[in-house]
Design a protein that fits this description.
154 residues, Rossmann fold, 5-stranded parallel beta sheet, globular
Length: 154
């Protein structure tokens, strides 16, 4: 075993507990992992630009200001990541998650996608670029345990 610490970026859906389940699993497995993620407070993510740089009367520019700040955060954290996990949830289309997966793929950063099987067709190109496709957060933890330690499940 080495002293290496791994950085895992958790991208995507913000409306369920998947990040906590992965974080809890990493702690239970005592894996040498640091987790990074986008701002998961929806309102803060949407409104950060105008809160910092001033109000915009046009919603397009309101969103643009926030998107540009979020992009700086996301790009930096993905560039620093050893592995990017991209979650596509059941309820909302996560266009930003698909963009994050493409950015990670362009950097050559390994990707694990996480989504239900009913999204397989819609995500076939994203999954083709991924190194692994998981259905549940616990599978991501098992994959990390194997990648980091060579540990098999169970």
């Amino acid at each position: 075993m080495t002293d290496r610490r791994w950085t895992i970026y958790l991208s995507g859906e913000i409306h369920s507990d998947w990040r906590k389940r992965i974080s809890d699993g990493i702690s239970e497995q005592n894996l040498p992992v640091d987790i990074s993620a986008p701002n998961t407070v929806h309102e803060n993510s949407d409104d950060c630009g105008v809160a910092i740089f001033g109000e915009e009367p046009d919603k397009f520019w309101h969103d643009r200001k926030g998107a540009q700040l979020n992009a700086m955060r996301t790009q930096t954290l993905i560039e620093d990541a050893d592995i990017v996990v991209v979650r596509f949830g059941e309820k909302y289309r996560q266009w930003n998650a698909a963009f994050d997966a493409g950015y990670a793929a362009a950097l050559g950063t390994p990707i694990i996608t996480l989504h239900p099987s009913e999204h397989d067709h819609a995500l076939k190109e994203v999954d083709a670029a991924a190194n692994a496709v998981a259905r549940e957060p616990e599978q991501v933890v098992q994959a990390l345990a194997y990648i980091i330690r060579g540990a098999m499940p169970g």
